Structures are given as structure tokens and as C-alpha cells.
């Protein structure tokens, strides 16, 4: 699929997902494509990741598992794309419907908005319950500013991983591009951890995920800076300064870019020291504003996020139009 077809496909997919999301009744009935990919990853983990094997062998088996995962996902997605496009331009519609399930604009907004609602309606307990659905850190260690920062950080990071990156690879590589990206990203989330079981086996998934997310993390930061420039209550200059100063200090090679941009735009400090389960992570702060975030700041972040999603759609539409000239 060339750009003159993949970019209109991207515009359609973004539009469909923003309007409808992934209906809950579909999830209840058939699950979700990411859960299907997850089952394949789980099977490969159980079959190939033998604890008695040496570190080097487990690392090699992790590479093999990733290659097998990508071979299956890409082969199926190429077949699906070929079948859809055999109907001509009308085939873009079912293909866009399928691609839209791998983008998370609407669901990300809803999950983060529930944290603000929880804090506003039920106080700290409500905020902790809602934020526990979207972050891995221990919610019982979080006060109200901690809950609010965690929600905003999740919004910024997942904007890159859940929207910009799949959109980038859909526009560049068609349906196989976005399917392969989601396979890599899901593998990283399941086995790309520095735990005794997955330090070796998940090495390839974690490193490849860092690579495929690199362009989207930078693009997401730029979208947030431009969105801040269009919002009189946000600080585009602060966003740009925070990105230049702090993004590279984050423990992740990619997460720091959108988090720093969001922090600077809102006049906050994000990231910093935090607790995942029983493990304390002493990360650098992103931004130099106040750390005392609240539900109103989550709402401000959501407004910036919605505007950035609109800019992403406009950018895709512009490039799609240029390819058709």
C-alpha cells in the first residue's frame, strides 16, 4: 500500500475511532485485537521462556518469539489488507474500521477523565480507584497531587504510544504497519520488564519498542507544544523549554518527550520519584512548575490532549490531500 492509500486510510481510522471508540459490547462478545495478540505472546512466553535455560539462550528465545509474533501478525494483516482492497476504494472503509480498533483516542480520554471525576465526586479514594486502572504504581502511596500527576503522565505517555505511534505506522505502512506496531508494543508491555523472568527473554521486545516509538514521541511533544500555543491558558514556551531541558533525563528514551511537553505547557512538574508495587523509581522531574496538581489540572491536560488529537488528524488530512494532488 502506497502513501496515497495509507494516508486516507489513516484519516478514516482516526475519524471512526474518535467518533465511536471500541464499543464495550464488542469487547464483551469477542474481546479486542490487542487481547488476541496478547494470547499469542503469552503462549510464546510459556513455550520458549524456560527458567532453567542460560541467560544467553533465553535472550535468543526472546528474539525468536518476537520474530514469530511479527511473522504471524504481519502475514494476517497483509492478507486482510489484500482482501479489503480487492473491493477497490470501498475496501478502505472496512480496513479503516479494523485499523481504528488499534488506536485509542476515545478510550484514553475516558479513562483519564474518570480520574478527575473520581477526585471531584469521591475525593482521594475515588481518584485512587480510577487511577489504578491506568497506571502500574501503587495507588495507596499517592496523595491527591500524586493521583493527579499520575493521570496526567499516563495521558501524555499513552498519547504517544496509543495514538501518535499507531497513527504514524498506519500512515507509513498501511494496516500491516499498525498491526506490527501494536504487536511490538503489546509484547513490550507483557514481557519487556526487568524482572528475573523477562530480563533476558523480553530484551528484544523492549529494545524494538523503544525504536518504533522514537519518531512518535518527538511528534507528540511537538503536537503538544503547538496545541499549547493555541491555548491562552497554556504555556507553549514553557513546554518547549521543558522538552529541551528535561526530555532526555527521563528513564525512558521516549516517555520524557510528551511528559516534559505536557508538564511545561501546564506549569507542572511530572514524573520524578514514584513507587511501582514495592519498587521505588528515582526518576528526574519533567518541568519546573508546581508538583501540587489537582483534578482541574487533569481537565486542562485533557483539553490540551483533545486539541493535539485534532492537530494530528489535520496533519494526516493535509498529507493525504498532498499525495492525491
Automatic annotation (TrEMBL):
Q: Where are the transmembrane segments?
A: 60-80, 86-104, 308-324
Instruction: Give the record's pathway.
Output: Cofactor biosynthesis; adenosylcobalamin biosynthesis
Where does the protein principally reside? membrane
Report the membrane topology from the UniProt record.
Answer: Multi-pass membrane protein
Which cellular compartments is it found in? Cell membrane
Q: Which UniProt keywords apply?
A: Cell membrane, Cobalamin biosynthesis, Membrane, Transmembrane, Transmembrane helix
Which InterPro entries does the protein's record reference?
Cobalamin_biosynth_CobD/CbiB
Q: What biological function has been recorded for the protein in this entry?
A: Converts cobyric acid to cobinamide by the addition of aminopropanol on the F carboxylic group.
Under the heading PANTHER family, the entry gives: COBALAMIN BIOSYNTHESIS PROTEIN CBIB (PTHR34308)
Family in the record: Belongs to the CobD/CbiB family.
Please report the name of this protein according to its UniProt entry.
Answer: Cobalamin biosynthesis protein CobD
Amino acid at each position: 500500500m502506497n502513501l496515497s492509500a495509507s494516508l486516507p486510510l489513516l484519516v478514516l481510522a482516526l475519524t471512526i475511532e474518535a467518533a465511536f471508540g471500541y464499543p464495550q459490547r464488542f469487547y464483551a462478545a469477542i474481546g479486542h485485537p490487542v487481547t488476541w495478540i496478547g494470547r499469542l505472546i503469552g503462549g510464546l512466553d510459556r513455550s520458549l521462556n524456560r527458567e532453567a535455560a542460560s541467560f544467553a539462550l533465553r535472550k535468543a528465545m526472546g528474539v525468536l518469539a518476537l520474530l514469530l509474533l511479527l511473522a504471524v501478525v504481519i502475514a494476517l494483516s497483509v492478507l486482510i489488507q489484500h482482501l479489503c482492497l480487492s473491493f477497490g476504494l470501498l475496501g478502505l472503509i472496512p480496513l479503516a474500521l479494523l485499523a481504528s480498533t488499534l488506536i485509542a483516542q476515545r478510550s484514553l480520554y475516558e479513562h483519564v477523565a474518570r480520574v478527575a471525576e473520581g477526585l471531584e465526586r469521591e475525593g482521594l479514594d475515588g481518584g485512587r480507584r480510577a487511577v489504578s486502572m491506568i497506571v502500574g504504581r501503587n495507588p495507596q502511596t499517592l496523595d491527591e497531587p500524586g493521583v493527579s500527576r499520575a493521570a496526567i503522565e499516563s495521558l501524555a505517555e499513552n498519547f504517544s504510544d496509543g495514538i501518535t505511534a499507531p497513527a504514524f505506522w498506519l500512515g507509513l505502512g498501511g494496516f500491516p504497519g499498525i498491526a506490527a506496531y501494536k504487536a511490538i508494543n503489546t509484547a513490550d508491555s507483557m514481557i519487556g520488564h526487568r524482572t528475573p523472568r523477562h530480563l533476558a527473554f523480553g530484551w528484544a521486545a523492549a529494545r524494538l519498542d523503544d525504536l518504533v516509538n522514537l519518531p512518535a514521541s518527538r511528534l507528540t511533544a511537538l503536537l503538544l507544544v503547538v496545541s499549547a500555543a493555541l491555548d491562552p491558558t497554556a504555556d507553549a514556551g514553557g513546554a518547549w523549554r521543558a522538552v529541551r531541558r528535561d526530555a532526555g533525563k527521563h528513564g525512558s528514551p521516549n516517555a520524557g518527550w510528551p511528559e516534559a511537553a505536557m508538564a511545561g505547557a501546564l506549569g507542572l512538574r511530572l514524573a520524578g520519584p514514584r513507587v511501582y508495587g514495592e519498587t521505588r523509581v528515582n526518576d528526574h522531574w519533567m518541568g519546573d512548575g508546581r508538583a501540587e496538581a489537582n483534578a482541574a489540572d487533569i481537565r486542562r491536560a485533557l483539553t490540551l490532549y483533545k486539541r493535539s488529537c485534532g492537530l494530528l488528524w489535520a496533519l494526516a488530512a493535509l498529507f493525504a490531500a498532498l499525495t492525491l494532488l
